[in-house]
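Incident log, structure service

09:12 report received: a user says their structure output differs between two submissions of the same chain.
09:20 pulled the input from the user's history:
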Amino acid sequence: MKPVTSNRGLLLSRVSDSLQYPAVVLKKCCYRLAEITTYYHSAASEFVQHHMSVWNVLMTIDLDHVIVPTHNRSASAKMLAELLGVRWAGAGPFSAVYVNANLTLDFVETEGTFAPHHYCFRVDEAEFNAIVSRLKNAGIKYRSTPRGPEDMQINSQLGSSNIYWNEPDGHQWEILTVDHAVNRKELMSC
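09:34 re-ran on a clean worker, output below:
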């Protein structure tokens, strides 16, 4: 039969052993520290890989084109392209306005009625002024609010400039110099 030892006695014998063999205790501590470090390194690596994959998805999605219904595709595309100062071309059933290197607005002739759409373009201040000048030269009325009278005013209440106008099919166009709807950089950093 084994002699009964108290927990206190067992603890004291372990402390005594530890004092006699500090290298053993140090070795055990080092192994445990290595295990913990490996675990946290692995967790951090998984975290980074996950967020990098999310970032890569966000960075690889581009809007390529948008279909714009119209009753006269060539006239509508030509008018918008001239106002924005970009090129346009007819191809097949579409007349494309080349908004930038990655995006076209493809005007397609549509029979009957369709709901008017809202399209907004963010431009710099110089381009904004050039578009406003082209609107004036074309005799196209614009306004400072999404709806309401064509007051021929520029909205600058939010520290930027923006205006709205409608084209013959009823679509509403907007140009602005700063997007106040969403801070995309904060969303992209999530």
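09:41 both user submissions now match this output. Likely a transient worker issue. Closing.
09:42 reviewer note: The chain has a mean pLDDT of 82. The first strand starts at residue 65 and ends at 70.
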